[in-house]
């Protein structure tokens, strides 16, 4: 080893130890907060899962199909929802699908509720976006398995850490796309609103948000797809759902089980994507 390399490698910066000390500090001083948050999320999400599972599967299938028709006014989409969910029931994966559906909807809703306001704030304040940009890059490029270590330390196993990991992974999409939508509003539209005496709040609600709606809805669909991509990862930290049979199939090299669970995830992804897209379904 040459002297320069030896010098650089010899004085290792203890980044890992600093991280461990930081998380030790959090667990020693704020364990009550993280435990309360995990217990609250587990009780809330578990309660919704149990409530949905109390309903007859056919009734829930018809309710989701009716919601799809109400959103898109497409009977073809409703029929596709019914056929896809009946196939999942036929494969014996209904409970896992409901658990995954609750996790994905909760994570996507939370990501949008946090991400859209942050995106609006960043669009109106360039300094905020300059600070956010490296953080968002880190959130999107950091390997997902790295998220599991601190989340497991702080929240333990279960559906709560699974949701938290999913929110962290999916949140950059609505932030970036909301920022893009707001900053892409044509200046003549803003100038026209200002000429009519609109306040900043009126410009936001009546000009910027309507113009940015396609980008924001694209952020929602990205959120849903990213949340579904975390299903298997979340199963590794105790979150039930369709990721659990995938992990079991991987551990036992069970090709039929893996194929069944994989198809169920694909069907659920297609249903949620079609329902979340803006506008009516042109194929109806």
Detailed description of the structure:
- The structure is a single chain.
- With 284 residues, this protein is mainly α.
- The chain contains 14 helices and no strands.
- The chain has helices at residues 3-10, 15-54, 57-72, 75-90, 94-124, 126-141, 144-155, 159-170, 172-183, 187-195, 200-229, 231-235, 243-252, 255-276.
- The longest helix is centred in the N-terminal third of the chain and has 40 residues, at 15-54.
- It is globular and about 65 Å long.
- The protein starts with a helix and ends in an 8-residue tail after the last helix.
- The relative contact order is 0.13.
Q: What's a concise summary of this model?
A:
The protein is an all-alpha fold.
Q: Rg, please?
A: 22 Å
Give a short account of the largest sheet.
none
Question: Taking all residues together, what is the mean pLDDT?
Answer: 85
Measured by DSSP, the beta-strand proportion falls in under 5%
What global shape is seen?
Answer: globular
Number of helices: 14
In angstroms, what separates the terminal alpha carbons? 68 Å
Class inferred from helices and paired strands: mainly alpha
Helix amount, in percent? over 70%
Order of helices and strands: HHHHHHHHHHHHHH
Number of strands: 0
């Amino acid at each position: 080893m040459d002297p320069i390399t030896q010098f650089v490698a010899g004085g290792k910066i203890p980044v890992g130890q600093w991280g461990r000390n930081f998380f030790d500090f959090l667990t020693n001083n704020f364990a009550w907060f993280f435990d309360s948050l995990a217990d609250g999320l587990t009780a809330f999400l578990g309660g919704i899962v149990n409530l949905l599972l109390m309903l007859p599967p056919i009734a829930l299938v018809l309710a989701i199909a009716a919601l799809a028709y109400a959103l898109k006014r497409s009977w073809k989409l409703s029929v596709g929802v019914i056929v896809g969910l009946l196939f999942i029931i036929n494969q014996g994966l209904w409970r896992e699908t409901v658990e995954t559906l609750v996790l994905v909807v909760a994570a996507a809703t939370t990501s949008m509720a946090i991400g859209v306001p942050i995106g609006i704030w960043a669009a109106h304040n360039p300094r905020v976006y300059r600070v956010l940009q490296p953080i968002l890059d880190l959130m999107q490029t950091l390997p997902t398995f790295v998220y599991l270590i601190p989340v497991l330390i702080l929240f333990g196993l279960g559906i709560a850490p699974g949701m938290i990991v999913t929110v962290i992974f999916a949140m950059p999409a609505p932030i970036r796309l909301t920022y893009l939508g707001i900053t892409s509003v044509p200046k003549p539209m803003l100038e026209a609103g200002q000429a009519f005496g609109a306040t900043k709040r009126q410009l936001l609600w009546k000009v910027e948000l309507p113009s940015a709606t396609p980008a924001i809805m694209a952020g929602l669909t990205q959120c849903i797809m990213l949340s579904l991509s975390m299903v298997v990862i979340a199963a590794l930290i105790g979150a039930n759902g369709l990721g659990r049979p995938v992990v079991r199939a991987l551990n036992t090299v069970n090709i039929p089980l893996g194929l069944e669970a994989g198809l169920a995830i694909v069907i659920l992804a297609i249903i949620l994507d079609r329902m979340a897209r803006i506008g009516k379904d042109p194929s109806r």
